[in-house]
Design brief:
The complex is a heterodimer of chains A (559) and B (101). Chain A has 559 residues and is mainly α. Chain A has helices at 2-7, 23-41, 44-47, 50-75, 77-80, 97-124, 129-147, 151-169, 176-207, 212-220, 232-249, 258-265, 268-293, 298-321, 326-346, 358-388, 404-407, 409-423, 429-443, 447-472, 476-484, 490-500, 519-537, 543-553; strands at residues 86-88, 93-95, 509-510, 513-514. Mean pLDDT of chain A is 82; it is low at 225-229, 351-356 and 478-513. The chains are: A mainly alpha (559), B mainly alpha (101).
């Protein structure tokens, strides 16, 4: 019966999955699903702090699994040489020091933002499991992005990362600002995705593959005939479009226009998450593509990156000075930080650097250290803003922060530490990070970039000092001013009255509205500030991980 | 006259540009949103054209992933548009000016 014989299909080859190496990713993904399942069957009144506790625990467990993965990499030393890297899931994901470090940064961000969200949702009176679930799913997308080596998977990871955050930005149902921010973020994010996707299609057309290593090998072996469409202008156009797509995600000038609006309109803990995890993941994706896929085109993309970096540093630091809203100021400051991180991406080696020369390692290490330092600083700062902003994020004008040191000395002190760190004062993580980036730029003979970075650091220091001065020095006369100033400030007073009627919010009352500093938020901010100082005083603590990441990235690529 | 892959690529580029221009010019949130979908699906034509020319199945596989992502974006995008429109039924993108500075 030949007919039946034909219907027997050969077993489809399924990729071998190293479950253990994927554990941190899986823990977070499963955690998100379990959380939404449990909370959907538990009555609302019984939940309490469970969603936040669950999220923080999940992130901590996933973080513990990072250690397992870290030591697991060593098991394959014979097979994979000294490189401590491993392909999993049919070469689509790669686990190496770089992946593990970025995963750690993203998990740290989920851990801290979980604390911020708990306090925020209690104050705003929202019931929150979906906030935590979306945040975890977004983080899963970010973790995928950091490990992905196939352009299609990179696109999917970017979308998983972004779509959840579009929703998060608009979840504050009482504020129309929140929905406006979500819509702007969505339209510009979708535009960026379309550019990214078109770039991927063009690169696929030019090389006949979507795998980063194959794209790399394609040029290095000059394999004629792999694609009959071989066309280097198509390749360059694709590369440019991929860079445009990522430039939107990392909010580099001139693709930054959405950033201030979205950062201002989104709920503040979500802004913290967007500025830390989402940005770190997008940078990791950009780094991977540029460095692992387009290595041989380094002379083509380096000028573009340096132009983006210079534009971000200059425009970001100067426009920040013109702002009066603290959230917008910090949005521009995050654009300046993006410029710094772009310099670190610029400072990765070209083809000649493969094999672990000093300039190459400096760039990779500066990149990763900056991501970690920036994540700590930015979550801490937006954490303080979460508390100081008051109900419905109403008090984010610079004037609302006057005299914060009188009413909330602890909060104001932490804010000062974090802002000084962002400005790059010595003995903080911000200083070490900026120093490393500029050193890496100098080692790559990009002196102009280094000089612009230093100037931008000086200009943006004015911005941070302005906030600190407002908090500390203009306290007394402002208290008197605010008490008498009842006529033209009716909106703020209305909010203050509303909060005063909520008994469970009972904390120190100030003339400018209530500042609510619950313990989870305060702990998260303290942790961030503590981490910032520890990293600044003992930067060598993360050195082994950085070395390993640089090792695994400085080797020749092969599947 | 033979229709080669190049024709499809040109069609794809034209549709992508139409979507981009529409996104920048139109002020109705719903139409802007349709323009984004047009851009994504224009890229799909490119993927299929390349896939045929390269005789490689990866491009056609990619289209399925893109379709799924586009569907997910529709869910989120439409619900955002509905949330905005419910507040102000005659809303255009020019009215979204609360956040500026």
């Amino acid at each position: 019966m030949g007919l039946f014989a034909q219907t027997v299909v050969d077993a489809i080859d399924t990729p071998e999955v190293e479950w253990k190496m994927m554990a941190p990713l899986l823990v977070l993904a499963v955690g998100a699903i379990v959380l939404i399942t449990i909370t959907s069957v538990v009555p609302r009144t019984r939940r309490g702090g469970f969603p936040a506790a669950f999220t923080i625990t999940t992130a901590a467990v996933a973080g513990w699994f990072l250690k397992v993965v870290w030591s697991g990499l060593g098991d394959h030393a014979e097979t994979y040489g000294i490189w401590r890297r491993q392909w999993i899931v049919a070469d689509a994901l790669m686990i190496d020091g770089f992946t593990i470090f970025v995963w750690g940064v993203i998990l740290l961000s989920v851990f801290l933002c979980g604390g911020l969200l708990d306090s925020y949702l209690r104050r705003e009176g929202f019931d929150g499991p979906e906030w935590y679930t979306l945040m975890m799913i977004s983080a899963v997308g970010g973790m995928l992005l950091a490990a992905a080596h196939d352009l299609i998977l990179i696109f999917l990871a970017v979308e998983i990362l972004s779509i959840a955050v579009y929703v998060l930005a608009g979840l504050h149902l009482r504020r129309s600002d929140s929905q406006e921010a979500a819509f702007k973020y969505f339209i510009l994010g979708a535009l960026a995705s379309a550019f990214l996707l078109y770039g991927i299609a063009l690169v696929y057309g030019a090389t006949g593959t979507t795998h980063l290593v194959d794209i790399f090998m394609y040029r290095s072996t000059n394999a004629a005939g792999l694609s009959p469409l071989t066309n280097s202008s198509m390749m360059l156009a694709g590369m440019a479009m991929i860079m445009i797509g990522f430039a939107f995600k990392i909010s580099a000038v001139p693709f930054h226009v959405w950033t201030p609006d979205v950062y201002q309109g989104a709920p503040t803990p979500i802004t913290a998450f967007m500025a830390s995890a989402v940005k770190a993941a997008a940078f990791a994706g950009l780094f991977r593509i540029m460095w692992e896929g387009f290595t041989y085109y380094v002379d083509d993309w380096r000028p573009v990156l340096s132009a983006l970096a210079i534009a971000s540093l200059v425009v970001g630091s100067f426009l920040a000075l013109a702002q009066t809203n603290v959230k917008r100021m910090l949005a521009y400051s995050s654009i300046v930080h993006a410029g710094f991180i772009l310099i670190a991406v610029y400072a990765v080696p070209g083809v000649t650097g493969i094999g672990g020369d000093d300039p190459s390692r400096l760039g990779i290490e500066a990149f990763l250290f900056y991501l970690l330092a920036y994540t700590l600083m930015t979550i801490g700062t937006f954490g303080v803003l979460t508390a100081a902003g008051g109900v419905d994020d109403a008090n984010h004008e610079l004037a609302d922060y006057r005299g914060l040191s009188k009413s909330q000395p602890v909060l104001a002190g932490l804010m000062a530490v974090l802002l000084f760190a962002q400005a790059g004062i010595p003995f903080t993580a911000g200083f070490v990070a900026k120093f490393r980036v500029i050193a890496a730029a100098a080692a790559n003979e990009a002196y102009i970039l280094g000089a612009v970075a230093m100037l931008a650091a000086v200009v943006s220091a004015v911005l941070y000092l302005r906030i600190v001065v407002t908090m500390f020095l203009v306290g007394d006369e402002l208290v008197a001013h605010a008490v008498t100033d009842t006529d033209d400030d009716a909106a703020t007073d209305g909010v203050a009255d509303e909060t005063a009627s909520n008994d469970h919010l009972g904390e120190a009352s100030t003339p400018f509205g209530q500042v609510y500093t619950p313990k989870p938020l305060l702990l998260a901010v303290m942790l961030a500030a503590f981490g910032t100082i520890v990293l600044g005083v003992f930067p060598q603590l993360v050195e082994p991980i950085l070395t390993d990441a640089a090792d695994s990235l400085s080797t020749l690529r092969q599947r | 006259m033979e229709v080669t892959a190049t024709w499809y690529l040109i069609l794809s580029a034209l549709l992508f540009t139409m979507g981009l221009v529409g996104l920048l010019v139109r002020r109705n949130p719903l139409i802007m949103f349709m323009c984004v979908e047009l851009m994504l699906n224009a890229v799909n034509i490119s993927f299929v054209a390349f896939s045929g020319a390269l005789n490689d199945v990866a491009g056609r596989t990619a289209v399925f992933f893109v379709l799924v992502v586009a569907a997910a974006e529709v869910v989120v995008g439409l619900s955002l548009v509905v949330a905005l429109m419910r507040r102000r039924p005659t809303l255009t993108a020019d009215d979204l000016t609360a956040l500026r500075g």
